[in-house]
Amino acid sequence: MARIDLRNLAHAYGPNPQGPSGYALKPLNHTWEDGGAYALLGPSGCGKTTLLNIISGLITPSHGQVVFDGVDVTSMPTEARNIAQVFQFPVIYDTMTVYDNLAFPLRNRRVPEPAVDARVREIATMLEMTDVLDKRARGLTADAKQKISLGRGLVRSDVAAILFDEPLTVIDPQLKWQLRSQLKQLHKKSGYTMVYVTHDQTEALTFADKVVVMLEGEVVQMGTPAELFERPAHTFVGYFIGSPGMNVFAADVDGTVATVDGTPIRLPRAYGKAQADRKVELGIRPEFVRVARGEGLPVTIRKVEDVGSYKIARLTFGNREIAAVAPEGTEFPADGAGAIFDPAHLNVYVDGHLVDGAPAREA
Amino acid sequence: MDKPINQKAWFLVLPVLLLVAFSAVIPLMTVVNYSVQDTFGNNEFFWAGTAWFEEMLRSPRFHQALARNLIFSAIILVIQIPLGIVVALSMPRKGVGVSICLVLMALPLLIPWNVVGTIWQVFGRVDIGLLGHTLEALGIDYNYVRDPLDAWFTIIIMDVWHWTSLVALLCYAGLVSIPEAYYQAARIDGASRWAVFRYIQLPKMNRVLLIAVLLRFMDSFMIYTEPFVVTGGGPGNSTTVLSIDLVKLAVGQFDLGPAAAMSIIYFLIVLLLSWVFYTVMTNYERGGQ
Which parts of the chain span the membrane according to its record (chain B) (predicted)? Predict the structure, then answer.
């Protein structure tokens, strides 16, 4: 167990990176607290796996340092780092039994055989694999193989952190839930630092205490699931998390008034006038948009999707699309509909990043 | 039991049956035919029964040639399979080196067999050959025309030069199909270089190794052209393997009956040993379950 600090870390795969786009991972400072459960969330190709491989030492970063509990391990090889990592596709040693597979990381480190046996049986019990321990690993299903991979990650008791690289991709949806909650329990029980890479928001939000959202090699926000939901620090976080994602549209902001296509909207806080060449946007979660008759922004209801436990109204305002979420049973007005935004949850973004306004004087 | 039975289906397999009949079964049957008869020329044949087979199986000449074949194949497998694996492991996985390596490795395989024999025949000659002359200049007594051991040495080195790249290319194909994640996982698990080879690379090469062993066994057991060109079976009979002996018997002495009997025994031995290799290796792969 360890606290992991990333100091001025950056990585470029090519030799002389030209500008920010040459980096697979843009410079970042980050701390993974000891015993935390983190999720790294982002679209494919955003640098999640690169970051993970840098922590485990499979990749040596081109810039910056990786520090475990105050010790610089940047140039240390993977074997010396006490890191466990589970990969997207199951990696098993075909010719070995399940038991030998689980024992492999321990035996390589010359752990005495009685200790190996105790540990392997403990992990096998947790993964509910005791009855297949003597079987050869190759004949098992993909689920079972991935459980073995997980098990090999968990079997070492001295690891600084366990890294998961989209480990549940090949698992059945039903078993996915089960394994995910097992992992969560395991985290509570063992107190390992765990970093879980995924592009599935549900997976990230259910597993982690803190979610780190990445975009194009950059960490755009780190926070609890609630923080990510309520105050997305970046428009990308807004529509990557939540279903449907946050409504984002261009607006002119001046003081406490935002103007969207000539329609003024009152803001909860006061903002300065943005520079002319900046892109100013307004963001609001569909959960905080209410549809009423004859009030707010005049909109047309394009369609209403009933997803069972709630309804999603797809609205158009001019040529902009707005989504609104309403409880089951809501009736929408046939004409003259208007969208009302909850002012407390209106966020203002400049060039994609959230800006904090000053408290409005006459609120 | 409810499967419809349609005899017309036979017409669909008929072309294949005919092809196999003309290319394999009928020629083989003529050999069987010769093997049970005796002739004194003039196209007159007399029934001989199993006499030729009994004679052949008791013949010391046959036993010696068979022993030479077995020793040759054993040496070839023992050298070429590990060497091929080592070469494949040290080949580059990416970059321009890959194509250069592949082309260089494929070159010996593209050379006609009797040309390979000629190359080594000249290469090993003490008077003008680069190898033979160099060895002599170094004071090493080497002459494949005179000394049986030198003749064996030359033939084995020639076969290793000719065919190891086939083993290496097959193994390389097996190696490149291993996903990178396996090597990463092995590093995480703290596996040694040997453990990576033993538990990741070797199991993944299992299938191609089976093919390599079978091909190399069959080819080396049936070898004819190269030793014939280099040594002609000599000095004495020291490199006379079954195929060379067979040609001497059938074409040189025109003993059709014994030669036919020998062919059939030869064929059955190749078949039997290939089957043994195949069974042993597939059983090993399944872990003896």
Answer: 12-36, 70-89, 96-115, 151-175, 208-225, 259-280
- CATH homologous superfamily for the domain B60-288: MetI-like (1.10.3720.10)
Asked whether A175 and A150 are in contact (CB, 8 A), the reply is no
For chain B, which residues make up each domain, given as ranges?
60-288
Give the DSSP H/E element, type plus range, for residue A97. Answer: none
Residue B164 backbone dihedrals phi, psi, to 5 degrees: -60, -35
Question: Distance, in angstroms, between B86 CA and closest chain A CA?
Answer: 21
Quick: pLDDT tens for A260-275.
777 788 887 778 776 6
ipTM of the complex: 0.74
Apex A205 CA angle, A357 and A35, nearest 5: 100
List of chain A residues whose C-beta atoms are within 8 Å of the C-beta of residue B195: 108
In terms of CA atoms, which chain B residue is nearest residue A109? B190
Contact B192 A108 (CB under 8 A): yes
- Looking only at the bridges linking them, the beta strands covering A280-284 and A320-327 are unpaired
Query: Structure pTM?
Result: 0.74
Distance CA B288, CA B196 (A): 23
Q: A88: which chain B residues are within 8 Å (Cβ-Cβ)? A: 181
Taking alpha carbons only, the member of A292, A289, A267 closest to residue A280 is A267
At CA A57, angle to CA A55 and CA A59, rounded to 5?
100
pLDDT number for residue A299: 83
CB atoms within 10 A of CB A10: 19
> Judged by CB atoms within 8 Å, which residues 239-278 of A form the interface with B?
none
Rounded Cα gap, residues B76 and A142, in angstroms: 40
Q: Between chains, do B185 and A104 touch, taking CB under 8 Å as contact? A: no
CB A213 within 8 A of CB A221: yes
Which residue has tokens 């002359």?
B133
C-alpha distance from A83 to closest chain B C-alpha (Å) = 7
Closest CA to B31 of B219, B274, B267: B267
Name which of B187, B189, B197, B198 to mutate to probe chain A: the one with the most chain A Cβ atoms within 10 A of its Cβ: B189
